């Protein structure tokens, strides 16, 4: 609605007794049907989109796929199979745990644990999820040795312990920032009780590193790659606290979505029992992961976001993905995998810088050109060059100029108008000068 130019949008006419200008009233009356039409589209699509009862053929023909067309959609994220994925889905697909879980699921024969998930989510490759400007992350994910071995159930015990340490430091930082800033900046998406992982990771740290792990320098200090990730979260908390949602969503919803598969693989590969050493994947306060994820996605989609904010959040989710992949790359380097490489942190942060540069260029272009009609008028003269009230006033002036009687014949039917014309007073002046000269 913000993109609609003034000529489409109703102007609010003043209703006080001193305003008798018919132009304001005419413009408001002319534009009102547009507002009513948009409100009707919103109401009908919202009501018909509710899954309450089967729709009749007549109702079905008015149902807009995807619900209300004015909700926040991430339109740049789509594929041939799934066009119009909403903003929440776009964010989720930048979660490392979510993507690895979906990749690993194809190698799993036992699907019993996923029976409560309802209809299966479309299995897409990592390239589908990251095709919009994430080629580097896509390539990195396919070539990280630790990820490939994890998927196939070949997990190095020492490296897994280091991974748990990295998760602990990551979540301590993330949840401290969320507890501090979440209630103020995005209260509807702050679920500390349900999602908090710090206490669960403390249990895992004790399992893998023994009692007294808090005093062990190897456990107390994060690795360089984890430190880079922590620094980024602290930076965005100062720069724009809303961006913390990118890190929270891609971590928590990814852990809920892919964690079940990953915990099952780790349990088998490391010969563990229950959630011993795997408490990180155990969300005790969430009885139904499916219901909670739906609730979380709805809350995210209902955020009142501007287009540039949406782009920044998805870009930061991309950064979060790259920073998490750096943690896995670091594990490969520590495991002395041939050809292992830790990408520069600047490369991971470039995703966000790129979207900022694009938005700056777009804003500059928008300021340089006129407001355009969102309905696509391209050919012929642009009917939206000027606001509607200006058009009305100019049209009246043109009409007045083209329909009046020329001087001096105007005196035959409108002497008052003739007395206002400059020609009349020019002749009067000459006459007075002649009279004065005769005295």
Describe this structure in words.
The chain is mostly helical. The chain folds into three domains: 98 residues, no CATH class; 282 residues, Heme Oxygenase, Chain A; 33 residues. The protein is 60% helix and 0% strand. It contains 19 helices and no strands. The longest helix has 29 residues. The N and C termini lie far apart (74 Å). About 14% of the residues have low confidence.
What's this entry about, in short?
The protein has 19 helices and no strands. With about 450 residues, the chain is mainly alpha-helical. It has three domains: about 1-70 and about 375-405, no CATH class; about 85-370, Up-down Bundle (Heme Oxygenase, Chain A), CATH 1.20.910; about 405-439.
Core attributes:
elongated, 60% helix, mainly alpha, 439 residues, 3 domains, Heme Oxygenase, Chain A
Mean pLDDT: 74
Helix/strand-derived category reads mainly alpha
Q: What is the radius of gyration computed over CA atoms, rounded to a whole number of angstroms?
A: 33 Å
Helix tally equals 19
Q: Name the CATH superfamily assignment of the largest domain.
A: Heme oxygenase-like
What is the approximate shape?
elongated
Q: CATH class of the largest domain, please?
A: Mainly Alpha
Order of helices and strands: HHHHHHHHHHHHHHHHHHH
Detail the poorly predicted runs. Answer: 10-28, 71-85, 109-135
The number of domains is: 3
**Biggest pleated-sheet summary:** none
**How many beta strands in the DSSP annotation?**
0
User: Roughly how many Å apart are the termini?
Assistant: 74 Å
Quaternary organisation = single chain
CATH topology of the largest domain: Heme Oxygenase, Chain A
């Amino acid at each position: 609605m913000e993109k609609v130019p003034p000529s489409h949008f109703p102007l609010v006419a003043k209703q006080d007794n001193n305003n008798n200008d018919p132009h304001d009233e005419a413009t408001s009356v002319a534009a009102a049907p547009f507002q009513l039409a948009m409100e009707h589209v919103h109401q009908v699509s919202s009501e018909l989109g509710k899954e309450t009862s089967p729709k009749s053929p007549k109702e079905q023909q008015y149902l807009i796929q995807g619900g209300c067309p004015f909700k926040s959609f991430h339109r740049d994220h789509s594929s041939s199979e799934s066009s119009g994925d909403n903003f929440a889905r776009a964010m989720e697909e930048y979660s490392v745990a979510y993507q690895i879980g979906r990749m690993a699921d194809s190698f799993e024969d036992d699907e019993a644990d996923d029976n409560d998930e309802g209809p299966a989510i479309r299995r897409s490759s990592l390239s589908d999820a990251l095709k919009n400007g994430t080629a580097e992350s896509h390539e990195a994910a396919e070539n990280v040795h630790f990820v490939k071995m994890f998927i196939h159930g070949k997990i190095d015990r020492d490296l897994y312990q280091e991974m748990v340490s990295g998760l602990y430091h990551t979540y301590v930082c993330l949840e401290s920032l969320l507890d501090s800033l979440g209630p103020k900046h995005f209260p509807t998406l702050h679920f500390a009780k349900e999602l908090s992982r710090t206490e669960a990771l403390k249990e895992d740290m004790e399992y893998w590193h023994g009692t007294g792990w808090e005093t062990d320098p190897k456990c107390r200090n994060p690795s360089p790659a984890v430190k880079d990730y922590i620094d980024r979260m602290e930076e965005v908390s100062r720069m724009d606290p809303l961006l913390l949602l990118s890190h929270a969503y891609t971590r928590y919803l990814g852990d809920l979505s892919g964690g079940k598969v990953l915990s099952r693989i780790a349990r088998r590969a490391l010969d563990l029992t229950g959630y011993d050493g795997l408490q990180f994947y155990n969300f005790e306060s969430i009885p139904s992961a499916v219901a909670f994820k739906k609730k979380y996605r709805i809350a995210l989609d209902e955020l009142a976001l501007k287009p540039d904010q949406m782009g920044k959040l998805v870009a930061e989710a991309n950064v979060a993905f790259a920073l998490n992949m750096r943690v896995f790359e670091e594990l490969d380097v520590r495991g002395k995998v041939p050809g292992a490489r830790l990408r520069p942190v600047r490369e991971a942060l470039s995703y966000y810088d790129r979207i900022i540069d694009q938005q700056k260029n777009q804003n500059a272009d928008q300021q340089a050109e006129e407001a355009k009609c969102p309905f696509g008028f391209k050919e012929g003269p642009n009917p939206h060059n000027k606001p509607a009230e200006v058009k009305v006033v100019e049209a009246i002036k043109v009409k007045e100029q083209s329909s009046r009687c020329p001087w001096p014949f105007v005196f035959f039917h409108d002497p008052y108008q003739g007395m206002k014309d400059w020609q009349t007073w020019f002749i009067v002046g000459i006459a007075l000068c002649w009279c004065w000269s005769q005295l």
